[in-house]
């Protein structure tokens, strides 16, 4: 990743602004006992002196996990029994969304209760803007926030102020010095720093400035789960009779795409037959998009993720606090079906990470709170990550902070099995005035009821889809519903103006002929090489090249 040193102050206000092969034995090495984190906040937190009456909160956030990457959501290739069980033991939201098609903005939205256009982090932190973006595109991307705004109060800070012990493990990617987890309400930080992918890959040594290395070959995914489980344990050194908020933000399944040799072989042998025409990828406007789930390396990553989640759930049960613990499981954007590692398929949803369609933003969201929810609950009400802030506050019996979580709404009624038409009919808004590595186009979106409008910034044209009848977004009905298009566009643009959203501008350097030549290369020899590389992953004698993309970062 390229990291810009430009600091962005969007408005003058007080707002703070791997494919590697390792041995199975190394992968299963136990984590050594550690009594402290690599970073501990210097500001003491309030500690209650009696048994917790407020619920504990465990928030599990996965990176780049697509909705269809789980068995409970329809995958027949990936194996996710622990996550599936979690989904089936509480409320499963079937129309849940990340707040952005890439990572950092969605993570900020969860912690702040705001849409990205409002908090200002509209791109993954480190993405180039303006003339620093050296790809031939017709628009110049605007600047964006490079760290969590310091005057906002994060969910962790709100809970810490109410006596919660707070813990963070995993991917942060919301700023470096001065904007780390311990600067935003987390008392303990294992592994959270400025980078968006694991610097040393998924096996120790990690090369992570906020996480001590484990034994050679130790799994990062399992390590983070074990650190979380240790924190949850009532015998942990930091344990106290006060409730806790533990946020486990896995780096997985973000690239580099790595697994162990036994898991690669397991899923190589279980892979479905390739499409009849031999094409795993089809061009959708800009890039090839994966059409089938048969990547054995990615499948191995998914299995390790599921094992890690299982360890955390077991720790909750072993603590005796299952009935008093809210467990939330979600992801930050869609699965990577185009660009980068081309890891997975999100079908029948269109597109994936970085793209403006449902495959880029629809996510799993499961909430289990035995004091309120019961097994097998589902809701098709559209909800987003920004709703988690007020939801947790309300479930914890704490006052809401509507000026902070300005775009989030509590899901408490839905979790109690009650209707909430206010949520069903509210507008949900996305703003991504950027390009990315996955073929997405600068655009803003609004979902209102069953309808979704995509407003493109290049030429201001709109697409309209009825998601109830056309969840795959194959039929643009904008021409048939001009009044609906106008109304939804007005709501969208009025909101963006009200929060002083930034927009792209024309790039005078753009060369249309060069762009056509590049696109021809992508659709011709580029796609051929891609098909060949992914077919080779399933060959019995496949040996990954350790210097291939994904075996090292930076």
UniProtKB/TrEMBL annotation:
Keywords: Calcium, Hydrolase, Metal-binding, Signal. GO terms for molecular function: arylsulfatase activity; metal ion binding. Residues 55-397 form the Sulfatase N-terminal domain. Residues 1-37 form the signal peptide. Coiled coil: none annotated. It is an enzyme of class 3 (hydrolase). InterPro entries: Alkaline_phosphatase_core_sf (IPR017850), Sulfatase (IPR050738), Sulfatase_CS (IPR024607), Sulfatase_N (IPR000917). This is Arylsulfatase. It comes from Allorhodopirellula heiligendammensis.
């Amino acid at each position: 990743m390229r990291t810009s040193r430009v600091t962005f102050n969007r408005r003058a206000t007080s707002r703070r602004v791997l494919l590697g092969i390792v041995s199975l034995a190394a992968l299963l090495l136990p984590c050594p006992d550690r009594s402290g984190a690599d970073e501990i906040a210097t500001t003491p937190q309030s500690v209650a002196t009696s048994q917790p009456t407020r619920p504990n909160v465990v928030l599990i956030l996965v990176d780049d996990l697509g909705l269809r990457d789980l068995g409970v959501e329809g995958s027949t290739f990936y194996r996710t029994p622990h996550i599936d069980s979690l989904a089936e033991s509480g409320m499963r939201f079937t129309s849940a969304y990340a707040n952005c098609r890439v990572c950092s903005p969605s993570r900020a939205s969860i912690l702040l209760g705001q849409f990205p256009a409002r908090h200002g982090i509209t791109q993954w932190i480190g993405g180039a803007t303006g003339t620093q973006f050296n790809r031939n595109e017709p628009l110049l991307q605007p600047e964006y926030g490079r760290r969590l705004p310091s005057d906002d109060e994060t969910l962790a800070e709100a809970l810490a102020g109410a006596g919660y012990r707070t813990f963070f493990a995993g991917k942060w990617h919301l700023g470096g010095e001065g904007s780390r987890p311990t600067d935003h309400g987390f008392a303990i930080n294992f592994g959270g720093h400025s980078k968006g992918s694991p610097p040393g890959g998924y096996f120790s040594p990690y090369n992570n400035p906020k996480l001590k290395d484990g034994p050679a070959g130790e799994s990062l995914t399992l390590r983070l789960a074990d650190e979380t489980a240790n924190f949850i344990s009532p015998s942990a050194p930091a344990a106290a009779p006060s409730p806790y908020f533990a946020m486990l933000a896995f780096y997985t399944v973000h690239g580099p795409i790595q697994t162990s040799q036994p898991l690669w072989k397991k899923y190589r042998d279980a892979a479905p037959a390739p499409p009849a025409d031999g094409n795993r990828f089809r061009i959708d406007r800009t890039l090839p998009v994966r059409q089938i789930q048969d990547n054995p390396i990615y499948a191995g990553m998914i299995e390790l993720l599921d094992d890690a989640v299982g360890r955390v759930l077991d720790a909750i049960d072993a603590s005796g606090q299952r009935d008093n613990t809210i467990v939330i499981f979600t992801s930050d954007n869609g699965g990577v079906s185009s660009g980068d590692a081309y890891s997975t398929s999100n079908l029948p949803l269109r597109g994936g990470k970085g793209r403006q369609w449902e495959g880029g933003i629809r996510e799993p969201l499961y909430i289990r709170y035995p004091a309120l929810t019961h097994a097998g609950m589902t809701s098709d009400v559209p909800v987003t990550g920004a709703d988690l802030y007020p939801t947790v506050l309300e479930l914890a019996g704490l006052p809401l902070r509507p000026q902070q979580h300005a775009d989030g709404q509590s899901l408490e009624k839905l979790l109690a099995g009650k209707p909430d038409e206010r949520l069903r009919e509210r507008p949900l808004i996305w703003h991504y005035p950027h390009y990315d590595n996955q073929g997405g186009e600068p655009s803003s979106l609004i979902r209102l009821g069953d309808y979704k409008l995509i407003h493109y910034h290049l030429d201001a044209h709109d697409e309209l889809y009825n998601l109830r009848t056309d969840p795959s977004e194959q039929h643009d009905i904008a021409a048939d519903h001009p009044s609906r298009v106008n109304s939804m566009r007005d709501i969208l643009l009025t909101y963006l103006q009200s929060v002083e959203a930034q927009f792209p501008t024309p790039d005078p350097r753009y060369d249309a002929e060069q762009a056509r030549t590049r696109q021809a290369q992508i659709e011709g020899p580029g796609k051929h090489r891609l098909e060949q590389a992914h077919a080779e992953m399933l060959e019995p004698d496949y040996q990954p090249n350790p210097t291939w993309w994904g075996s090292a970062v930076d």
